[in-house]
Amino acid sequence: MSRRGWIASLVAALSLTAVLWAAPGEDFEKARAAAGAEAVAELRELADWCKSEKLYGRRYDTLGSILVLAPDDEGARKELGHKRAKDGSWTAPEKSRRPRDHNEAADPEYFEQRGQVVDRLRSRLLAAAEEAQLPPTERRPVFEDLLKLDADDADTRFLLGEGRREGAWVLLEVLRSDERRAELSASVKDAFERPVTSTPGTANAREQAIGLPVTGVFETPDGRVLGTVPVDELQRAGILLAAIRRHVVGVFGKDAKYGQNCTIYVLRPEDKDRYIDGVPEIDAKYREFMRTLLGSGIQGADDLAQWGPSEADRRDMLVREAVGWLFADAYGITTAHGWVHEGFGLYFSKQIVNTRLHWFARPAEYGRVEDDEALRNRMAGGKTDWLLEASLLLKSEAAPKLQFFLGKDVNRMTTPELLVAQALAAYLVEGRPETLPAIWTAIGEGQPSPQVLERELGTDLTRLQATLVRWLEERGGEGGEPPKVKPEKKGKF
Prior knowledge:
By secondary structure, the chain is α+β, with helices and mostly antiparallel strands. It contains 21 helices and ten strands.
């Protein structure tokens, strides 16, 4: 295996580990100090070589690198013209000028030697971190120090989870997102283009008893579709039902099905009350609650019903209901897992039908009521870019903290929390797709979301939130473009 391949394997193993190790002890710090001392000795030799080759500017740079690793190195300080005070502190010259090089032909050899010093230091630190079982969150500052020696060292950047895009260093999750969005777009296209068997049928006894003026009934492999809207809309609903499952199952990485007797009711708004009053499986309390909705799954039956004011509303509601059903079947995830249900449900809705018309979030009742209302209005606008909104929100003083809402059910989530949940879902689907089956499985089994995310992503929630902020900045909006607006106030991360 190549060195890059070995590093990649190590990073993957560490970031996806199922154990958060204990904090390192003195052994690691001793090994780190020893590795630094060896690198300082090698840099001093390189500085002497630069002098012999008349690379006076490169020598100046190398002496500066020594001070990165050993700030109190007396030799480097003196050669750089620093003065030592009586209290032992050093003062750099007020006017320091980098000398000129007089042997450009030696530059390639200089960079080769300097690169070897960084490579050896990185390898020693990796070995020490592995020996001490240093967790990823505590390795990061160690390798960030290496960038002070070589800001463009590709291997160190890779260890820090970064790669090159258009000349800039970005998160590896951003590079993966660029690829993943193309894959997801192709998946949705394929899901709709594959044929769906649809056979005309008739209403059964239960359906007839509800008393709806049914315009058509169609049998599909995923379920029955009937309703009171025009027949062509019913046929499109059958195709949509199949496309939802095809695409979502592909993202899940495992099969999932709708209910055994899945029946989709697509109704005109004026048929809502007749349907609600006629369904036998629900009690009076839920019956009244349903009247406030634009659609609902039916307790005790395998029905999904929509009665929104337009076909776009009804299709959006079908996606939300169907995705929720598939999550429950595949992973046991329900509305009790608010950030999953809303975050991924809204993300899939945008992907599949390009709308997000139906979402659960409590309007603010005190505090930032006007700000909350303005945010809700922007989110409800069809042209609003939710990822750009999330990026701005997360950099403001009003930024929701992951640790405060990951344990909420859908009925307790606020509008800002819902927006961030959808951004987090986008980050995971696009940037960390390999972690999702384990995350969803553990959450569905009842494990708390905060602990699951920390374990499976190999980080803590504070760093995850900071990573999400950076990912949104570097990924850009839902079309991939970078944010164009700066927030007035930035949050603390």
